[in-house]
Amino acid sequence: MSIVVVGSINMDLVVRVKRHPVPGETLLGSDYETHYGGKGANQAVAAARLLARPTPPKSAGPSPAPGVRMIGRVGQDEFGQQLRNALKREGINVSATLPIVAPTGVAFIAIDEEGQNTIIVSPGANHRLRPEHLSPAEFEGARVVVLQLEIPLETVRRAAELGRQAGAQVILNAAPAQKLPDKLLSHIDILVVNEIEALGLSGVKPDSPEMALEVAQLLTEKVPTVIITLGEQGAVWVSPQGRGHQPAPAVQAIDTTGAGDAFIGALAAALCEGRPLAQAVAHGCVAGALATTKTGAQSSLPWREEVCARLEL
């Protein structure tokens, strides 16, 4: 097993609005759409597509190269069944993604005319994934372990410990933003945050690539390698091997949902293949940008061929 993702699995309910409402205001939006989502599931799909060699077929589900395992929880309901089946169709191992007696997680997403989104998540079954549910056997052979914060924090910590014990490189996407204990950070190799999350962890707003590099340097006091994503400005990284800024390719964004997850999945896939950090960040920036050119979360995630074409590989 090459990549293990431990995290959330949600059904996204998406509505489009001209602008986001202010508190107390009611707006009329479009017909709502359902999309497969959850940060964990999105990142697992993104990684699987970036590891995949064949071009996806037009009708049947793709058959990516094996190597991604998803560990999570869904409900014993229609949403849960749909989400689990969708991961299977992506070629992802879901033997440790179990249906339980709880509602499947749901995300309520509003997208304005500029493509910017606001999201409210009802965790449901995701918050029933406990540390004792994780088995060391599920991490055997992992080269990269990917974590986020839409499951209980103690479960994230246990997953990080098991990843380290398995000899994997452990990536934490610290989203949604919250305070992180040092005991968790001590098991993390790569911390990935956006501008808001970086502000919450450092107390400094990285409002430019130059400032983001300084914030990343500050955060390396707790984690060896720190990456800060900056939307259309790309991303910066600081590691024991150096530091740098990777600009993002110019695209016409229509929906930013899933862009951060595309970045994480591409980063994990590139590192799993043994690419240097700078190259992995470049893969992430391209994948994140391409994801903004399509609607939805998982439906927008790019394939290996698309990213390689942009990178001229």
TrEMBL record:
GO-annotated cellular components: cytosol
What keywords is this UniProt entry annotated with?
ATP-binding, Carbohydrate metabolism, Cytoplasm, Kinase, Magnesium, Metal-binding, Nucleotide-binding, Potassium, Transferase
Annotated compartments = Cytoplasm
Catalytic site positions: 261
Q: Which residues bind substrate?
A: 10-12, 38-42, 150, 261
Name a biological process GO annotation: D-ribose catabolic process
Q: How is its activity regulated?
A: Activated by a monovalent cation that binds near, but not in, the active site. The most likely occupant of the site in vivo is potassium. Ion binding induces a conformational change that may alter substrate affinity.
Residue intervals passing through the bilayer: none
Q: Where does K(+) bind?
A: 255, 257, 291, 294, 296, 300
Enzyme's top EC category: transferase
Q: Which PANTHER family match?
A: RIBOKINASE, SUGAR KINASE
Q: What is this protein called?
A: Ribokinase
Organism of origin = Meiothermus taiwanensis
Q: Which gene encodes it?
A: rbsK
